[in-house]
Amino acid sequence: MAGAGQKAVSGSGNKIKIYGSLLPLGCRDEPKDVTITASGEAKANGETITVAATALGKGATTITTSAATAITDTTITVVGLLRDIPSGTPIIFNAGTPDESSTTTTAAAVATDTTLSVVGLTVPLSAGDTATVAVDGATAIDVSAIPNALSSGTTITFNKGSGSEQTVTLTAAATANATSLTVEPLVTNLTAGDTGQVNPNTTLSVLALSEAIAGGTRITFNKGLTNESRVYLTKDANKGATTIEFEGLSADISAGATAEFIAKLRILGGTSTGRNVNPNRNAFTVFEDEEGFEDGVITNGSWDVPWSGNFLVDDEGYERIEEAAFTSARNGREVYMWLETPIPIGKTTAPVTKGATIITGFSDTIAADGIITNSWTFSGQGTPLRERAA
Q1: pLDDT grade, residue 37 (50/70/90)?
Q2: What are phi and psi of 293, to 5 degrees?
Q3: Which of 30, 146, 180, 210 is deepest in the core (most CB within 10 A)?
Q4: How far apart are CA 56 and CA 142, in angstroms?
Q5: Burial of 316 by CB count in 10 Å (0-12 exposed, 13-18 middle, 19+ buried)?
Q6: Helices (H), the chain
């Protein structure tokens, strides 16, 4: 029974609740909910791509002239080229000899071509003169018809686990049944029959975000549906961003798919908490005390909220705390915390203490049943905010 001058606590609101949200780096504003809408697509499948024809990686090729060429000529006749030569490629024939002759290509040439377009020569050439040219790898791969469309930026790992393994990145989208892929220059050769595994996408185009979302946050698209897909942001997504970066894509995300980021997410399973507010005092005489007791001046203060309980390893709220505990030393990741104490009788809202914190003293015991007994402290960063019951 409440004592004289005290108000009883209502039975319906007699729980202490703690909520947490990861904060974007450098930001301590109270986070807000965000609806994330995909404007592009992300693929999680690991379909196999098969190379249909040889594609050469970065390397050197020899060019041999098949006819004499004058200084003023802008075309060199050559023995069929062994590989593509891009426009703007510098070429030195007879390097290191008195007949050394330099030029630069003015147009791209492809393998088997028998002419090169150039700016002119510094020394005339004779039939049989040679040049060794370093060229980038191919930027197109002929493949067997692919079963599904692939977006620009998709990565494919060819010959995985072998000495010739390489990962290539698409520089243009490819439609379903496409037989050619446009990629960043190859590093090593690919030959017909080589296979590659499409890696899950790690980026997604979205409609401009209404608020920032911190890296490490779990985002779930199509929640509760058969095509539910959970990802974890690998970096902060700023307000207005139109691309998010993530890892762990578990199912395809189609344009129009949505995810709800709930900023104030309750951390379920807590059993004990409290509030510690500690003014720091410099002890020196301010007013002389007749009894000789110490006096001083309050110079600053600190606050913290310890929290302990039994938590589910897969609980989203708990994951946010774990993320901050393991990354704060590396990147300074902070957590915005809300502590709601019981609602007094006659009131409709709970008193709240809230503010930016870091996670300290994170200590757990993990049982085989997936229940984690854990304790940690929300150590305040800056001034805590308070909301009175209303």
Answers
A1: very high
A2: -75, 150
A3: 146
A4: 11
A5: middle
A6: 316-331
Whether the predicted pLDDT of 126 surpasses 90: yes
**Cα-based distances in Å from 232 to 23, 237, 242, 320, 372:** 14, 11, 17, 11, 21
DSSP string, 117-160: EBS--SS-B-TT-EEEEEEPPPSEEEBSPPSS-B-TT-EEEEST
User: How far, in Å, CA of 320 to CA of 23, rounded?
Assistant: 10
- Find tokens 């608020």 and name the residue: 211
Residue 3 has pLDDT above 60, yes or no: no
Q: What CATH number should be reported for the domain holding residue 105?
A: 2.40.30.10
Determine the pLDDT at residue 148.
Answer: 79
Angle at 31 between CA 26 and CA 34, to 5 degrees: 120
Q: What is the DSSP letter of 8?
A: P
Residue 6 is assigned to a structural domain of this protein = no
Please state, as a whole number, how many other Cβ atoms lie within 10 Å of the Cβ of residue 313. Answer: 15
Residue environment code for 343-364, b if the CB has 16+ CB neighbours within 10 A, otherwise e: bbeebeebbbbbbbbbbeeeee
One domain, residues 296 and 379: yes
Pairwise CA distance, residues 317 & 261, whole Å: 12
What is the C-alpha to C-alpha distance for residues 21 and 221, in angstroms, rounded to an integer? 18
Render pLDDT for 219-248 as a digit per residue (tens, 0 to 9): 999 999 999 999 999 999 999 999 999 998
Pull the structure tokens for residue 299. Answer: 């110079």
Number of H helices, E strands in the chain: 1, 27
**How far, in Å, CA of 99 to CA of 31, rounded?**
71
21 and 75: one domain?
no
